[in-house]
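ARCHIVE CARD
Drawer: 12
Card no.: 0347
Subject: one protein chain, sequence and derived structure
Cross-reference: see card 0346
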Amino acid sequence: MKRILLVAPLPLRFDLTQDQAYLKLPFSKVSSFLMPLHIATVAGLTPDDYHVDLWDESVQGLVETKPDASSYDLVGITGYTVHLPRAHEVAKYFRSLDILVAIGGPGISSAPQNHYDDFDILFLGEAELTWPQFLEDWENGNYQKKYRQVKPLDLSLTTPPDWDSVAHLKDHYLVGAVQTSRGCPFDCEFCDVSYLFGLGYRHKPVETVVEEVANLQKIGVRRIVFCDDNFYGNRSFAKELLKRLIEFNRTLEHPLAFASEATINIANSEDILQLLADANFVEIFVGIESPNKESLKETNKPQNFRSNLVQDIRKIQSYGMAVRGSLIVGFDQDEKDIFEEQFEFVQDAHLVVPSIRVLMAPPGTRLWQRMKDDGRLLKGNKEGRYYGNPGTTNLLPKNMTRTELHAGYLELIEKIYSWENFAIRIKGFISSVKNEPNVPKRKIEWDRLFQFYYFLLFSLDSKARKVVWGIIWYARKNAPFLMARVMRIIMRQYGYSSRPKLRASIQQQIDLEESGDFVLEIEQEKTLLSREFKESYEEFFPTVYGSVVDSLIDKIDIEFILMRIFKEFIVSKGEDIGALSEQDKSQLLEIAEAVVTDSNLKSDRRDDSLVTEAAEIEDPRYLRMFEQVLKAVEQELRIDKTRNKDDSMPVDIAEVYIPVVDVGIHSAIEAKH
């Protein structure tokens, strides 16, 4: 039996969202915020005839210390951009042992050209189809270098995560994790959700979600975060799921507590807010970003600039749910007064858990492209690190210097996370809650109560302790049913207020840049495809798509055929390609005809059930294909350029996996059940 080790590497960056100070309290076993959903999901996709172990470095330590680390046949690594520096170290270690190393996840999918030669196999995009196919190829000795999922996955095809390997570690995590959906109907300029998952919103069947919740509850998990980009992306789905969660909680002796992420427009749906409260949602993460309406317009956040943010935040919190609000400073429309404006906004809204950052441009996003075009993006290395320390931005601000931005940010977080200002906000939150959520009463958790009083006596200085006692008495008098939630919010505040490493890191960067001994290096590499080309591409894509649909036999491969057509065309025109002409359209159609003819000659079957009607162009899925095909083509071009290869397109796209049918995932499902 082959042995597979799936690794969640330590992140490089520490920031205000990780609450590390709370996790390191002496009374707590907890050493990580979230159970490792990413590697548990891959484990769930793996047939039972493999031995699979999970290793989460945030809980179990560096993987090199694992006694039997050299006994595996394959190591899989996944994570975000902040995990990539450590991922490279892990890969180097296992490759030195002649063990095959694969990597996937949002980090690698954002910029694969930076990591191509440092891992044996790359998984780009969602893995539900490509992971089972890779395992089959691996068994046959003919696996590919890259496995790419282009079209957004039908989430009804997912399998539940396999927690068996880490179930015994549950007490080391603050919360469990379930994903109900992928994508978001909104397209904020700085957000990489649409880049990674395409525009639109997809969700799992309600029964699948409830099953995943029940699986975590069975192993003793008490709190669950729904790891969605927008829990409210589909109103009818959210409503149905919430009703089922309420029913499920009423069957339990100890009802579960939930949290998730939603857009601010959820405040317009009082029935949904009531269902959230009755389902025992204790916290909602909301991307607020800024009280500056011009900054919200700049970043394409209409649901926010059309909203009365203060009223909407207060309304959500009036149902007993704390709003964890994401706030950003450093937009182009931000002047130096933004720091005071943000502070006054947070206090006025009684925002109990503000999460404040400087603006970052994640790779591949529209903000990243714009900053690159404007010569304001800092050059990064292949591990995803930019010049600068954790907590600092990777771009040049417009209306202030970097040191002014970072100094203003430091002053802002010192002010917002002071215990006195926190007390004003949480008392405002407590006063706003008029109705007790209809949630079954939990028995007193004496261990949690002991932990809180231990924290109160030994982790706070006398000034903070006095403030906390005042909050406790205020909650007891005005809303005693909120006591457990208030204690958790206080613990969260401690995590935000006690971040000396972050503050030191930012101050070090300020001092470095002010000294004159440090020169920021601007990313000089041009954007491969101009804005003019992308506008023409959007106009020409339906014609090419229709031509391919009409003549391609094996339509299940259509997205890869389209990739090949547009890549061949771009390579033939050169890097300076701009707006397309009618003559270019004719050339595109000629290339399409040749590529389709080649594909049809290689096809040894005709399955009428796979026929795609030209009318599918009107389907919303077509729009996502338009975006995802262009993203994939750009990435392939960057990979070729990085590797100094000839830019001509291989005849059969040899290094990219083309799905045949959804056989791989169905085989995995059958094997697991």
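Annotation on reverse: Residues 216 and 511 are 47 Å apart (CA to CA). The chain has 26 helices and 15 strands.
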